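Model it.
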Amino acid sequence: MILRSLALLAVAAAPLAAQAPAAASADDRAAVLGVVKQLFDAMRAGDSAAVRAVFHPRAQLGSALIGRDGAPQVRLDSLANFIKAVGTPHAEVWDERTDNETVHVDGPLAVAWTPYAFYAGKTFSHCGVNSFQLARTAEGWRIVSLVDTRQRTGCPQQAAPK
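Modeled.
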Protein backbone atom coordinates (compact mmCIF):
# COMPACT_ATOMS: atom_id res chain seq x y z
CA MET A 1 0.00 0.00 0.00
CA ILE A 2 2.81 2.44 0.85
CA LEU A 3 4.65 1.64 -2.39
CA ARG A 4 1.45 2.17 -4.37
CA SER A 5 0.88 5.56 -2.67
CA LEU A 6 4.45 6.65 -3.35
CA ALA A 7 4.13 5.60 -6.99
CA LEU A 8 0.91 7.60 -7.39
CA LEU A 9 2.52 10.61 -5.72
CA ALA A 10 5.52 10.40 -8.07
CA VAL A 11 3.27 10.20 -11.14
CA ALA A 12 1.17 13.14 -9.94
CA ALA A 13 4.23 15.29 -9.16
CA ALA A 14 6.04 14.61 -12.46
CA PRO A 15 4.12 17.23 -14.51
CA LEU A 16 4.76 19.86 -11.81
CA ALA A 17 8.49 19.25 -11.91
CA ALA A 18 8.49 19.37 -15.70
CA GLN A 19 6.91 22.84 -15.64
CA ALA A 20 9.50 24.46 -13.37
CA PRO A 21 11.48 27.14 -15.24
CA ALA A 22 14.94 26.00 -16.17
CA ALA A 23 18.07 27.95 -15.53
CA ALA A 24 19.07 29.40 -18.87
CA SER A 25 21.85 27.77 -20.85
CA ALA A 26 24.82 30.04 -21.44
CA ASP A 27 23.76 30.52 -25.09
CA ASP A 28 20.13 31.37 -24.22
CA ARG A 29 21.22 33.70 -21.41
CA ALA A 30 23.58 35.52 -23.76
CA ALA A 31 20.92 35.78 -26.48
CA VAL A 32 18.24 37.09 -24.09
CA LEU A 33 20.59 39.60 -22.46
CA GLY A 34 21.78 40.55 -25.95
CA VAL A 35 18.25 41.73 -26.77
CA VAL A 36 18.14 43.73 -23.52
CA LYS A 37 21.54 45.27 -24.35
CA GLN A 38 20.30 46.12 -27.87
CA LEU A 39 17.36 47.97 -26.32
CA PHE A 40 19.58 50.05 -24.03
CA ASP A 41 22.10 50.74 -26.81
CA ALA A 42 19.22 51.93 -29.01
CA MET A 43 17.95 54.17 -26.19
CA ARG A 44 21.42 55.71 -25.77
CA ALA A 45 21.54 56.35 -29.53
CA GLY A 46 17.98 57.72 -29.66
CA ASP A 47 17.32 55.14 -32.41
CA SER A 48 13.58 54.42 -32.52
CA ALA A 49 13.91 51.88 -35.37
CA ALA A 50 16.41 49.83 -33.34
CA VAL A 51 14.09 50.01 -30.30
CA ARG A 52 11.16 48.77 -32.38
CA ALA A 53 13.26 45.85 -33.67
CA VAL A 54 13.71 44.25 -30.23
CA PHE A 55 10.00 44.29 -29.35
CA HIS A 56 7.15 42.08 -30.49
CA PRO A 57 4.71 44.39 -32.37
CA ARG A 58 2.02 43.90 -29.68
CA ALA A 59 4.34 44.23 -26.67
CA GLN A 60 3.04 45.76 -23.47
CA LEU A 61 4.91 48.20 -21.24
CA GLY A 62 4.26 49.32 -17.71
CA SER A 63 5.60 50.56 -14.40
CA ALA A 64 4.74 49.37 -10.92
CA LEU A 65 5.44 52.09 -8.39
CA ILE A 66 4.48 53.68 -5.13
CA GLY A 67 2.71 57.01 -5.61
CA ARG A 68 3.36 60.16 -3.63
CA ASP A 69 0.42 59.21 -1.42
CA GLY A 70 2.11 55.89 -0.55
CA ALA A 71 -0.37 53.78 -2.51
CA PRO A 72 0.83 51.23 -5.08
CA GLN A 73 0.12 52.14 -8.69
CA VAL A 74 0.43 50.50 -12.08
CA ARG A 75 0.99 52.72 -15.11
CA LEU A 76 0.65 51.17 -18.55
CA ASP A 77 1.96 52.70 -21.73
CA SER A 78 1.97 51.78 -25.39
CA LEU A 79 4.97 50.61 -27.35
CA ALA A 80 4.27 53.40 -29.87
CA ASN A 81 4.59 56.07 -27.15
CA PHE A 82 7.85 54.60 -25.90
CA ILE A 83 9.34 54.39 -29.40
CA LYS A 84 8.29 57.99 -30.07
CA ALA A 85 9.86 59.19 -26.80
CA VAL A 86 13.16 57.46 -27.56
CA GLY A 87 13.25 58.87 -31.10
CA THR A 88 12.33 62.41 -30.08
CA PRO A 89 15.53 64.46 -29.73
CA HIS A 90 16.46 65.16 -26.11
CA ALA A 91 19.37 67.09 -24.68
CA GLU A 92 20.82 64.26 -22.60
CA VAL A 93 21.68 60.69 -23.52
CA TRP A 94 19.31 58.17 -21.90
CA ASP A 95 21.71 55.76 -20.23
CA GLU A 96 20.21 52.73 -18.52
CA ARG A 97 22.79 50.55 -16.77
CA THR A 98 22.04 47.08 -15.44
CA ASP A 99 23.81 44.60 -13.18
CA ASN A 100 23.11 41.27 -11.46
CA GLU A 101 20.83 40.15 -14.29
CA THR A 102 18.89 36.90 -13.83
CA VAL A 103 17.52 34.92 -16.78
CA HIS A 104 15.17 31.92 -16.80
CA VAL A 105 14.21 30.08 -19.99
CA ASP A 106 11.56 27.46 -20.67
CA GLY A 107 11.57 26.60 -24.36
CA PRO A 108 10.28 29.65 -26.26
CA LEU A 109 9.71 31.78 -23.11
CA ALA A 110 12.32 33.75 -21.20
CA VAL A 111 12.22 36.07 -18.20
CA ALA A 112 15.02 38.54 -17.52
CA TRP A 113 15.17 40.39 -14.18
CA THR A 114 17.56 43.33 -14.47
CA PRO A 115 18.24 45.76 -11.62
CA TYR A 116 19.11 49.11 -13.18
CA ALA A 117 20.14 52.72 -12.71
CA PHE A 118 18.97 55.35 -15.19
CA TYR A 119 21.03 58.43 -16.00
CA ALA A 120 20.10 61.44 -18.11
CA GLY A 121 23.57 62.18 -19.42
CA LYS A 122 25.81 61.98 -16.36
CA THR A 123 23.01 62.90 -13.94
CA PHE A 124 21.45 60.08 -11.92
CA SER A 125 17.66 60.01 -12.40
CA HIS A 126 16.26 56.85 -10.81
CA CYS A 127 16.75 53.15 -10.22
CA GLY A 128 14.66 50.02 -9.97
CA VAL A 129 14.19 46.64 -11.58
CA ASN A 130 13.11 45.72 -15.11
CA SER A 131 11.09 42.56 -15.58
CA PHE A 132 11.34 41.47 -19.22
CA GLN A 133 9.27 38.67 -20.70
CA LEU A 134 10.62 37.55 -24.07
CA ALA A 135 9.39 35.02 -26.60
CA ARG A 136 11.49 33.16 -29.12
CA THR A 137 10.13 33.96 -32.59
CA ALA A 138 11.23 33.09 -36.12
CA GLU A 139 13.28 36.33 -36.01
CA GLY A 140 14.86 35.52 -32.63
CA TRP A 141 14.05 36.62 -29.08
CA ARG A 142 11.59 39.54 -28.88
CA ILE A 143 10.37 41.47 -25.84
CA VAL A 144 6.64 40.86 -25.33
CA SER A 145 6.33 42.61 -21.97
CA LEU A 146 8.44 45.04 -19.99
CA VAL A 147 7.41 46.23 -16.52
CA ASP A 148 9.72 48.25 -14.31
CA THR A 149 9.85 49.74 -10.85
CA ARG A 150 11.16 53.25 -10.21
CA GLN A 151 12.57 55.05 -7.21
CA ARG A 152 14.74 58.11 -6.77
CA THR A 153 16.18 57.43 -3.32
CA GLY A 154 17.89 54.49 -1.68
CA CYS A 155 19.64 53.52 -4.89
CA PRO A 156 23.14 52.10 -4.48
CA GLN A 157 24.03 53.40 -7.95
CA GLN A 158 23.40 57.06 -7.01
CA ALA A 159 26.99 57.54 -5.96
CA ALA A 160 28.51 55.60 -8.85
CA PRO A 161 28.69 57.76 -12.00
CA LYS A 162 30.49 56.21 -14.96
